[in-house]
């Protein structure tokens, strides 16, 4: 039955204050079941509306500037509060309107909660467009709010004054069908702490047989998970995001232990962005629509977008948790099931995430995690005939192997995010301090182990020396050490193998005649640290300029004209990212038009957003992750045509 109502609000809400009406009057609210007065409410009049409009108009000045994620999270918080008070709201609705309590509860209140959740999912997805106007013009269409109508957060980062927290327990088994199991191989492999070179965990070594078991579980789960309501998948994903928020320090500490990156980076980039990714795609889960097509003749046709099936996902070691989120979130939001293989160097944060998937209530078999090596577990995922789509992030050479495996097996859909050798063009009119800071952060962030690292910087000859000196100064002031401290901004490389690879490239640069103005050597004798390195006098034919180093090594190159800089920037097999620093709009628009890269940054670098598509030109990959575009990677398109007795209006 309806619950007893302890209190009724009867005042006006203006500017977040409950106030009496200026009229000094009240009006009675009648209980329609009895005909008796159940409340006396303040009678708002024109003057009160004016006060409310003034408050709304003033609030609009700042509320319109808020990030969609902030508004999304506010609305989700409201929906959660409504859920907590649903019996009270339903009881008030029944008292006020007279409708049956169960109708108030299961229709009015439930649908109201769903409405807020649905539009919360749209808050971070309102986009504009670039229009192809004629002449020498560039036109953008921006959709902006225009009335005080309720439809990155003002502070995107978590706050933390502490170092990484102690890790009480690490998950080291395989997740198959919601069970944590040992590998069929009977083997384990060691995971190394890159800050010390010591073993921090021994993880079960999944092989082809384990992948087969995981695919069977995912295939069976897909039969029912594909039929689930988008709202159900949305709420599961929001629950997962809430659990990640609750365990954010633990997840960040595991990521730092596993990968070596500074703790605050793990917390504020990897973990925070992963949570945002799940929230963003939770908002898409109930918004996947088809269309009716205007076919000729006496036919009616509609197009459906359906989940593709079992997805194999192979993620890299540089951003384990974040790359996992980029792949898991769109796949699961659309009703697919997943078999994921984390990199053998960094499996620990993804395994902990697997525990949170189970805790969030994901059905058995929907998410399966098989740690192991590329030649065994990874190869089986790429070749498996029951996997309908494979997503891979890693080296270009392995990307080729994944494509070949798809061709040799079942022609599964493939998306690849591969290597990069990203150019940054610094023009003579650029703000040199800002450009140098961006260049330094662009190459030294995550110790240079980023596919979009700004590893080639083309600097106009008139400002070259000053620019190089500024980047050198930035490199030399960076604090190197184990990532667990919040005072460290440069951690170790992920492995001893990677450290030696980077040091070998540095030696090749020296031999070729490039001049290291700072760094150029290992830091200390424990762990896998390399000093931030800036090469001057580099030329396009050097290996340090041509090849992806994946370490804290940047080459500065002189240029004379913008056309020359663009041509040289594009003279690479890669095309993942590029950028330009200039204050001239014509320069900016020319560079962004002709640079061959999937992401082009202007007067900034490494600005990623879940709403923006990400991927590369040329050998930097196939397909686009993130944004609405990623949904196409995990759906099939089906056209349905029905014969009719006569024509319809089309």
- Kindly report the spatial arrangement of strands forming the biggest sheet: 20-21-22-19-18-24-25
Kindly estimate the percentage of residues that lie in beta strands according to DSSP.
15-25%
Distance between the termini: 50 Å
Helical coverage, percent range: 25-40%
Radius of gyration: 28 Å
Number of strands: 28
Unreliable residue stretches:
145-156
- The pLDDT mean sits at 94
Tell me, briefly, the overall form: globular
Number of helices, counting only DSSP H or I runs of 4 residues or more: 18
Taking the sheet with the most strands, its summary is:
7 strands, mixed
Global structural class: alpha/beta
Describe the structure.
- This protein is α/β, with parallel strands linked by helices and 650 residues long.
- It is 39% helix and 20% strand.
- It has 18 helices and 28 strands.
- The strands form 9 sheets. Strands 20-21-22-19-18-24-25 form a 7-stranded mixed sheet, with helices on both faces. A 6-stranded mixed sheet has the order 15-14-13-16-17-27, with helices on both faces.
- Strand 18 (423-426), helix 13 and strand 19 form a beta-alpha-beta unit.
- Helix 3 crosses helix 4, helix 6 (230-246) crosses helix 10 (348-360) and helix 7 (248-259) crosses helix 8 (263-282).
- It is globular.
- 45% of the residues are buried.
- The model is unreliable at 145-156 (pLDDT under 50).
